[in-house]
Specification:
Blueprint lengths: L8 H11 L5 E4 L4 H8 L5 E4 L1 H8 L4 H8 L3 E5 L12 E4 L9 H13 L6 E5 L3 H9 L7 E4 L14 H4 L3 H6 L2
Parallel strand pairs: 1-2, 3-4, 3-5, 5-6
Helix pairs in contact: 1-6
Amino acid sequence: NANGCLYTPELRNDLIDTLEDTRITHGMLRILPEQLKRVESLLRGTWVDAEVVYENLEIGALRPLFDALRGLHTVIISSNEKKDAPLPYTGFITAPRKNAHGDKKRILNEVRAYAAGHPEPVTYLFACGMAAGTFVHELHGTIPGASFLDIGHILDPFVGQFDRDYLLKIPKETLMRNI
């Protein structure tokens, strides 16, 4: 993975549970041909091409997504650097920049505590590495009216994080068209 998260046995098990969940819509990035057969045996439910999000980031076409998120009660779950992202939010739950899965219990408890104090619909945006999808999986269906999105690394270039080479190639003016 791009940001050096540890791939622990616990994370592996949670990722497999997530892959097998038919209740949620999954986004998938590129799969190497030699891995496809193994991954196909795990896939359940609905899958969409998540690569389209990053392709639109590269051409400055994510403004409709950012505009839609601006109109929602949103909580970002990510590292402190993301507090400076150009996306208004009403709550922020701090996750480690790496290895968020090791802090799973605290993070999920903080999301649940936030939800208990906010009965209106809330959209939770997870940007905390490989653990994000497992958090979405575990929370899905447990908080009435809530939406959970693993937004991957789309906020990274806006806060100076360039763990992925392609992000360095996006001209600043193109990047700014997204917001």
